[in-house]
Amino acid sequence: MDYGLLVMGAPYSQPAPHSALRFAHAVLARGHRLVGVFFYHDGVHNASMLMTPPQDELNLRDAWKALHKEHDVALDVCIAAALRRGVISQSEASRHGHDAFNLEAPFELTGLGQLLTLQQRCDRLITFAS
């Protein structure tokens, strides 16, 4: 079965991102396929490379990157929600006249159309929200 995840919760302030990550690993361990993850609303903060949790805590951004590297899972971030919350790629920073950025590959800024495409490509789209 093909799964997609919609993550709407902020890291470290809501359980949604951690639950989504655990669910992703469980799905893959059972032989299913994870087509992609779409970060929306406060979930876009999972992509910020400025996140610096204590060393004894799971770094959620690094965990999502590892999931991408090990299983080729797309990590799409809603561009409208991200820009509104200060999560910005290098190209968008240039476009908007900012000196800094905090989002880089494998996370990719995309529109809501990508969420619809993800929904069409999977058998189940599971939402993780607060």
TrEMBL record:
Q: Does the keyword Cytoplasm apply?
A: yes
Highest rank taxon of the organism: Bacteria
For this UniProt entry, the molecular function terms from Gene Ontology, in alphabetical order, are: sulfur carrier activity; sulfurtransferase activity
Which Gene Ontology cellular-component terms appear in the entry? sulfurtransferase complex
Q: Please provide the record's keywords in A-Z order.
A: Cytoplasm, Transferase
Gene Ontology annotations of biological process type = tRNA wobble position uridine thiolation
Instruction: Write down the InterPro entries for this protein, in alphabetical order.
Output: DsrEFH-like, Sulphur_relay_DsrE/F-like, Sulphur_relay_TusD/DsrE
- Cited Pfam families: DsrE (PF02635)
Q: Where in the cell is it found?
A: Cytoplasm
Query: What SUPFAM superfamilies does its record include?
Result: DsrEFH-like (SSF75169)
| Family of the protein in this entry | Belongs to the DsrE/TusD family.
What's this protein's name? tRNA 2-thiouridine synthesizing protein D
